[in-house]
Design goal:
Blueprint (H helix, E strand, L loop, with lengths): L1 H20 L4 E7 L4 E2 L6 E6 L5 E11 L6 E9 L6 E8 L1 E2 L3 E2 L2 E3 L2 E7 L5 E2 L4 E9 L6 E2 L1 E10 L1
């Protein structure tokens, strides 16, 4: 009996050590959209610090909306600034639903969350320091209704 007990404890310790070694470092920040109506002039901004330039990072846009959101997509401008660099802008459409599958994000009740990967591959960061990221709604509807919050997520591989 004592031998089995020791084996179980050893298994738990090894499992915890392996789990601790494989954890991904993450930064995630979301900002609420007042009254669930994203006006053109609301441009949520996110600052985050990178200290490890040897690692690879994945960057995601996080979007939460209700089931009453009227579109299968969203058009956004996103701005990205590296330390000591100028602010760069990119416009892009993000698919949120299809006619066949419905909402592509994960849902609970009538709320859906999308984590949309911006980079098709992991990017290596070239500088340590504070990075800036800004999101801007550029859909035709102003305000864009039923958007609960938006944010970013950075995962270190």
């Amino acid at each position: 009996m004592a031998k089995n007990y020791s084996s179980v404890i050893l298994f738990i310790i090894i499992s915890l050590c392996l789990a601790a070694c494989s954890q991904t470092e993450v930064f995630e920040k979301n900002k609420s959209i007042p009254k669930h109506q994203w006006h053109y002039d609301l441009k949520p901004s996110f600052d985050f610090t990178i200290k490890d330039t040897t690692a690879l990072y994945n960057l995601y846009i996080v979007l939460r909306h209700t089931d009453a959101y009227r579109y299968n997509n969203i058009w956004l401008n996103y701005y990205f600034q590296s330390p000591g660099d100028t602010l760069r802008k990119e416009s892009r459409e993000f698919q949120l639903a299809t006619n066949d599958k419905g909402w592509l994000g994960t849902g609970m009740d009538d709320i859906y969350e999308h984590r949309i990967k911006l980079t098709p591959y992991a990017d290596k960061v070239k500088r340590t320091g504070t990075y800036k990221f800004i999101l801007e709604n550029i859909m035709r509807e102003d305000p864009l209704k039923e958007v609960l919050n938006v944010g970013i997520r950075i995962e270190k591989q």
